[in-house]
Amino acid sequence: DLFNKVFVFPQETNDSYVLIKAMPEQPLQNFTVCLRSYTDLTRSYSLFSYATKAQDNDIVLIKPRPREYQLYVGGKFVSFRVPEDSMESEHICTSWESTTGIVGFWFNGKRWPYKGLQKGYLVSHKAVIVLGQEQNSYGGLFDAKQSFVGEISEVYMWDVGLTTRQVISAMRNWPMEAPIFGWRNLPYKIEGEVYLKP
C-alpha cells in the first residue's frame, strides 16, 4: 500500500523508471488510467507508457508542453489543453471505449469535453507498463529527453470507464471500482534511480 507516498524521479535519464508488474487478463475494449504528477519540467515528458509487441504506443500519457496532455491509443493521439501550471501537483484521469472511440479526460477532478479516437480498436493485454519513460520499442529504447523528472503518485488502471464521481473517489485514493492495479496495492519494480518517499 503506497498511500501517502510518491515515486521521485530525480534527474533526466534513459535508464530509470518504474515497471508495473501487473497487466489486464484480456484485451482491453475500455480502460481508465489515473495518476498524480508534480514537476517543473517545461519540455515534453512521458508519464505512463503501455507497450505491446505490435504497438509501442498502445496506451501512452504524455505532456508535450506545459498546457497540454496527449493520450495515445494504438499509435494515434488526442490532445487536451489544461490551465497554466500553478506549480501544484496535477491529478489526471483519462478513459477510452472501443465501441464509440470516446475519450474522457479529467483534470483535478473536473471533466473536459469528450473527444474521439480509434473507434473499434482493441488494446492487447500482453504489455509492458512503465512510469516515467516512453517505450520506443516493447520494453525499452528510452530517450532521456522524454524522461520524467519530479514526483508521480496515485497511479490506477481499470478495464472500465469511470464516471466523474468515481474519478473523484480515485483522486482521494478510495476507488469505488476494483482496478487492474492501483496505489493501495501496486505491484512494481524500480529500475535505476527512482526513490519511494513519504
UniProtKB/TrEMBL annotation:
Q: Known InterPro entries for this protein?
A: ConA-like_dom_sf, Pentaxin_CS, Pentraxin_domain, PTX_dom
Q: Name one GO cellular component term.
A: extracellular space
Q: Which SMART domains match?
A: PTX
The disulfides recorded in the entry are: C34-C93
Q: What keywords were assigned to this record?
A: Acute phase, Calcium, Disulfide bond, Metal-binding, Secreted, Signal
For this protein, the record's CDD domains field holds: PTX
User: Known Gene3D superfamilies for this protein?
Assistant: 2.60.120.200
Per UniProt, subcellular location reads as:
Secreted
Q: Which residues form a coiled coil?
A: none
Asked if the Swiss-Prot or TrEMBL record annotates the protein with the keyword Repeat, the reply is no
- Pinpoint the Pentraxin (PTX) domain residues: 3-198
The family database entries (Pfam families) matched by this protein are listed as: Pentaxin
Lineage: superkingdom: Eukaryota
Cofactor(s) essential for the protein:
Ca(2+)
Q: How does it assemble?
A: Homopentamer. Pentaxin (or pentraxin) have a discoid arrangement of 5 non-covalently bound subunits.
Homology family: Belongs to the pentraxin family.
* Protein name, entry field: Pentraxin family member
Q: Which organism is it from?
A: Struthio camelus australis
Give the source lineage, highest ranks first. Answer: Eukaryota, Metazoa, Chordata, Craniata, Vertebrata
